[in-house]
Design goal:
240 residues; mainly alpha; 2 domains; globular
Length: 240
């Protein structure tokens, strides 16, 4: 997975380069109650300053500090991405999406907890749609696994099971899709087994749809065999 923006200093540079374009967004504000873009940008620069302070004084920050700082950064980025929804801001949105994943990795590498998952899941989907090379897909699967491990207990408890669009569910389903696209049987078996554990009610339909995709997209035989294996494991008759 190629991420152009590799450090928080890079993030600062990229935000600076698109600053004038971002300022144009205020001209299309829908209501006076919406936070001015300058306020949001200033908050993001403040986040970057705080994060830089963490690097200077690592011993002073506990895991919950990292979690709170990271969540603050993700919240600001979520606001900026929302403002760049129009097609003419595709480049800006792409840059912000990469920064979301950079901040996510920053949290994980410092043993923080992920409490805000939705912008991360949206960013991962954008990246997944842009890559096709096998090693990049496998790297993305591994990164998604790190994110899953770093999620808070409240997210992992998956209490909103009636919400099909909940980020926890979407993350696991999308990870299964990326694993399939990798055409790597080892990766597929590992992720599929975890999918059954995490989403036992969704897994049968995932593998059923996967079997249809095997034919429609002409997947390699070794990939079909793994999908068939897990379809057989979960294709059980339902008692009503």
């Amino acid at each position: 997975m190629e991420i152009v923006i590799k450090t928080l200093d890079d993030a600062r540079d990229h935000i600076s380069k698109i600053l004038d374009r971002l300022r144009l967004l205020d001209a299309d504000k829908k209501s006076d109650s919406e936070e001015p873009i300058e306020t949001t940008i200033a908050a993001f620069y403040q986040f970057l300053d705080i994060a830089a302070g963490v690097e200077d004084r690592k011993q002073e920050f506990a895991s919950n500090d990292i979690s709170d700082i990271g969540e603050h950064g993700l919240t600001i980025l979520e606001k900026l991405i929302y403002k760049t929804a129009a097609p003419e801001y595709t480049i800006e949105k792409g840059i912000l999406t990469q920064i979301v994943l950079l901040v996510t990795d920053w949290i994980i590498q410092r043993d923080g907890i992920i409490n805000l998952l939705e912008p991360i899941v949206d960013a991962l989907a954008q990246v997944a749609n842009s890559i096709t090379e096998q090693q990049q897909l496998i790297a993305l699967v591994d990164f998604m696994s790190e994110i899953i491990d770093a999620c808070s207990d409240s997210i992992k408890q998956d209490m909103e099971m009636s919400n099909m669009q909940r980020p926890w569910r979407v993350l696991h389903i999308n990870r299964g899709i990326v694993a399939t696209r990798s055409n790597d049987p080892t990766t597929m078996r590992r992720i599929f087994a975890e999918l059954i554990t995490a989403l036992p009610m969704d897994a049968p339909n995932f593998f059923k749809e996967g079997m249809s995709e095997m034919v429609r997209l002409n997947y390699p035989e070794q990939v079909r065999e793994v999908m068939q294996e897990f379809f057989d494991k979960t294709d059980k008759p339902q008692i009503h």
